[in-house]
Predict the structure.
Amino acid sequence: MRLSPDLIRLAVPFLALAALLAGVFWLQPRAMSYTGLNLLFNLAVPIALATLAQMFIIAVNDLDLSMGAFVSFAACVTATFLHDTPVLGALILAASVAAYAALGVVIHLRGLPAIVVTLGMSFVWLGLAVMILPAPGGAAPAWLRALMTVRPPLLPMALAASILIALVAHLIIARSALGVLIRGVGGNERSVARAGWSVLRAKAAAYALAGLFGVLAGMALVGLTTSADANIALRYTLLSIAGVILGGGEFVGGRVSAVGAVVGALTLALAGSFLSFLRLSPDWQIGAQGAILILVLALRLGLDALERRRRGRA
Amino acid sequence: MSDAPALLSVSDARLRFGEVTALDGVSLALRPGECLGLVGHNGAGKSTLVNVLNGGLALHAGSVAAGGRAGRWDVAAARAMGLRCVFQELSLCPNLTVAENARILHRGHFGLRWRAEARRLARAALDAVFPGHGIDVRAQVASLALAQRQMVEIALAFAEAGTPARLVILDEPTSSLDAGIAGQLLAHVRRFVAAGGTVVLISHILSEVLATATRIVVMKDGKVVADRPAAAFTQAGLVAAMGSTARERQRPDRAAAAAAPEPLAVHASPRGLPVRVAPGEVVGLTGLAGHGQTELLRALHERLAPAWAAGRDPKVAYVAGDRRFDGILPLWSIRRNLTISALAALTRRGLVDGRAEAAAAEAWRTRIGIRSPDLGLPILSLSGGNQQKVLFARALLAAAPLVLMDDPMRGVDVGTKQEVYGIIRAEAAAGRAFVWYSTEIEEMELCDRVYVFREGAAVAELEGEEITEAAILAASFAGHAAEALA
């Protein structure tokens, strides 16, 4: 059977995840249980949501450097306003999604580099988060806490949620007309415009979706940790970018995969646990995590090169 | 001629890009049920005219009228009329599948179950134009071969979706198709025209145009120079119509080139003639734009200037044609833009020798005549022609024996051109070699030897007195005769 390049692209994150999981089970067989899996993947849910948010931005050839700060901001709003005055909290979160759409509009209309705009916005989000929660605190709304700690049969909550999220995002980006349009803008903006579509609206929609998934990431995070802090999710910026790329996405060309992005996020979350089980000193963990990332990306580049050579011969 | 109202007409269209007149009073009417062949050499104004027809460019003077009524003409109006365009550069989204591209191209045509509909539409469109195409409409466009991508794009332009296609503009549609597939396309064009549609066909394969078009318009220098039924033309007649009337040759009388000195560089490619250049020679590359000339320059540059081995004596220098893309450093001063190529020679103990740099820049300012009071001013303070002079000076300042030029005179005024021609000849006389790609045929007459490119390879080599506009045109447009009729 001839594997299509897309399948190979998607296989790499799954293989990496399986290899890491095998390593974890081998080091710590007790992880191979309902509770064990839930613990392993618990914090992967918000990372997966943030990765999907980043994926929508990358699909239109932009990059969001404010994702971590935005998720922190959403978490702070969730732990304070949404807990104390649900209506006001929901309004603030909706306004922040609208702000994301507006960012897309400004970036497109003024031809600004998204990296610069979002880098600036990261300080805005962070500043707002600090104003809301100067010190760690707040509380998760009860329903959110209940939702994040529900114990479904068969599959632990973390995995069930990841599968559900991946499916929903896949429907949006790969199956819906809007998703085709967003990826079309990433692939060839001019031809989309020539066909009579509004590139502006497509970009605004992509940014709004990113804002929506960012808000969901912040809420999920608070549901798990029960409180928030202005710096709670700062590392999500780079994790989300790494997750998209790990999951078979590319920085330019509108080539992204929702399923891949979620698997990439799970892989990144698992890499940390794997290294802890190895009893690696925390000093070395970040470096080792980076090494795992480079290894997986090298594997993908190798497969790509192989595919190109095969096609060249054909 | 015919009494039927024109589907689309332009009258007295005029358009200028800076120094260049792209359209100089073009009038053209497209009627239902005709296939108009549009031919002309580089810069004749074909692409500009197409962009005016499809609403992409607004005219400076003159008007566009659809169905006999003049009005606002833009991309949306063109689409609403049923105008479809296939451009020379591929305009599909490579990351989407064939069916998804159909969805993008024909918006507003689909319901909730659009995936199945789009697949059906794409399949039907391909079957109609290219029976037995063997293309999977669920495949990503990037995974298709170049010819298949072009087939998809053409088929989608003819697809029956939304506003029916009434006018299809095909710009070099067969450039990457083999003869059999091209034959299928041309047969479809004839069927489409017979059913009352209108096609504008631009192609460098004249036999194709002669066999398919009902009427042929020849353009030259932004003007229509011939407009007759296709039957009134022959291949030789078309080539002759594209050329200009006899003109004073620019070529200065020179002593015949020295008896074949050792070539400085040879670029042999699997197809076509090897391109040779010897010291003191000016070698021209010509042919229609995009037929492999720039690729040859890039390949030569890559081979002679490897990434690791830059140093004090470079083997090759490059004059960019697209100034903004790979030419100027827009934030730097004129002086720094000029001396960057010879920085290694102007450096002492790792530091740039400011006095030597200023002296070198000043010497070239007077030699090549850069019109600026102060070389410390930013490069963008100069006019386009003077910026191009700085790029020339940059290439000549590097002591490289070979200079590659990628259509450097694009958008440069006549005065500057004459000055630069003089310097090129002087430098060549001093032993430097030039490889000069130009889209302007007149410039080829300044060369010692000329290679005409077609479809990625050099197909003809002209020397000395053989370098004439007629010979270049004949070589650019020949070929394929037998295949196209298949």
User: Anything to note?
Assistant: The radius of gyration of chain B is 25 Å. Chain B has a mean pLDDT of 83.
